[in-house]
Amino acid sequence: MTGVSTDDVRRRIPRTDTVLAEPPVADAVAVVGRARVKDLVVAAQDRARRGELAPEDVTDAVVAELARLGPTAASLRPVINASGVLLHTNLGRAPLSRAAREAAVAAAGTTDVELDLATGERGRRGAGALDALAAAVPDAGGVHVANNGAAALVLAATALAAGREIVIARGEMVEIGDGFRVPDLLVSTGARLREVGTTNRVHRRDYAEAVGPDTGMILKVHPSNFVVSGFTSAVPTDELTGLGVPVVVDIGSGLLAPDPALPDEPDATSSLRAGADLVTASGDKLLGGPQAGLLLGSAELVHRLRRHPLARALRVDKLTLAALEATLRGPEPPARAMLHTPYAALRERTEALAAELGLEAVDCTAAVGGGGAPGVELPSAGLALPVAAAAALRVGADPVVARVEHGRCVVDLRSVDPDDDARLAAALRAVTGS
């Protein structure tokens, strides 16, 4: 810009309407809104006035910023999870299946969520999702859905034990992510906690001696994000039945039936068969569906919970109901497919990508995550890059979250949907120049 006056530069800056009319920018206006795009145009024009940007590059700068912000009007961006943690809480836990995503999109418009089209009268809210859940766990006499796993537990504690006692083992008074503590949650319902046993050992007699006229329920909480080993003992569900109060089992991870890949992970079907009166779980973990709190158990108890005033405040919306039903009725969701993918298939995918990109294929270890299956290591395969690549991948046009271990960045394929391999390859090329 040597020899060009400030006034000349300003006259060369394209008008706002001109930039907004450019095809890539106009397309973005239709998706993310005129006001947001106009703000980007004005910001680029200001950069040009300050000499930070050539006037003829204003439109390209706006297009680049739109690409960085993502394809929708929301700030959430699609991310490729190559961390090796299948249910990564910071990445939204279970990715929805294509069937669940399409169901949620279809439900985003006007739907018959609470209307019987045949009669024109009010219908049972979320009947399809509830019927699908009941079919998936036939041992449950009744089912209900709240808006997350904690909500399911709050509803159970409020309906059964507000102003009364909850008997719980000391070793099951757990803290999970972000400082969230189960004891604090339970006390917030107005219940009182009656702790039994010690940190590492509890016996049936401890529960029996604690149960009395003021007991609202016995609660078993699966310590899903840690393992206590050594001199330990716990009381199985089938030994807690017959003490005269409801037994509620919080399995946490959302596994509805036994899974050979996770033999030590509790599931809803086995807990009910062992005598649990009520089971609570999360829908966005091993079930592989949307965030939801599942309640399964005695028809009388579930009806009691469903009619409690708090149930209205904790109910799920139509998008969750649609995605949950599609998860239960549709094909195997991504999280389950990732869990069950054989190591040989992962190694083959990894070597193909390594050959294509000129990178090194390595063996590594993945984890379930999301507070499920603590201590379980899943054999996996990935691509090794320099440590600095981890940050570069996160801030790329198509963000990739890898992990750093043993002095290298590892792109773990077990947590990457095979349908995203082309996206992953493009992101890696942008960082490595391969």
UniProtKB/TrEMBL annotation:
It is found in: Cytoplasm. Pathway: Aminoacyl-tRNA biosynthesis; selenocysteinyl-tRNA(Sec) biosynthesis; selenocysteinyl-tRNA(Sec) from L-seryl-tRNA(Sec) (bacterial route): step 1/1. Coiled coil: none annotated. Keywords: Cytoplasm, Protein biosynthesis, Pyridoxal phosphate, Selenium, Transferase. Pfam families: Se-cys_synth_N (PF12390), SelA (PF03841). The modification N6-(pyridoxal phosphate)lysine is found at K285. Its main location: cytoplasm. Converts seryl-tRNA(Sec) to selenocysteinyl-tRNA(Sec) required for selenoprotein biosynthesis. This is L-seryl-tRNA(Sec) selenium transferase. It comes from Actinomycetospora endophytica.
